[in-house]
Amino acid sequence: MGVDELLRHGDAVVVGVVETIGAAVIVVGALWAALRIVVEGLRHRSAAVFTPIRLSLGRFLTLGLEFQLAADILRTAVSPTFAQLGQLAAIATIRTALNVVLRREIAQEKRQVEAGDGPRPDPQPASGGSGGNPG
């Protein structure tokens, strides 16, 4: 087994691991958000309680997309062709645009929550203790 073959095989393994991590992050975020929507939807009938859930889902999506982009970059790291470079450029542009839009939306939603538009439920259950949650 030559060095080139070893590098290609190692690169394929690393790409698979990074892609799997990215997909897992997105799936975990979607499941978490779905669970929180059901729980919060049963407790509160206000649309404002869903904003923190959307913020968290957006963060999961952004992180997952970053892993997917990293996998695409790694895929072309070992002896890329011009076609692969063109595909990487297109994919990177699309994923970067998605990340920019997601980050902008997350920032806007976060500003709305901090400004006090509607109730601000605690996104995580209280861990006990005597300190109350102001607001």
What percentage of the residues does DSSP assign to strands (E)?
Answer: under 5%
Described by strand count, sense and barrel closure, the largest sheet is:
none
Low-confidence stretches are: 118-135
Subunit arrangement of the protein:
single chain
Number of strands: 0
SS content category: mainly alpha
Element-by-element helix/strand order: HHH
Overall 3D geometry?
elongated
Integer average pLDDT: 81
What's the end-to-end separation, in Å?
A: 64 Å
Please provide a written account of the structure.
With 135 residues, the protein is mainly alpha-helical. Helix content is 74%, strand content 0%. It has three helices and no strands. The protein has helices spanning 3-43, 51-75, 82-115. Helix 2 runs antiparallel to helix 3 (82-115). The longest helix is centred in the first third of the chain and has 41 residues, at 3-43. The radius of gyration is 20 Å and the shape is elongated. Residues 118-135 have low confidence and may be disordered.
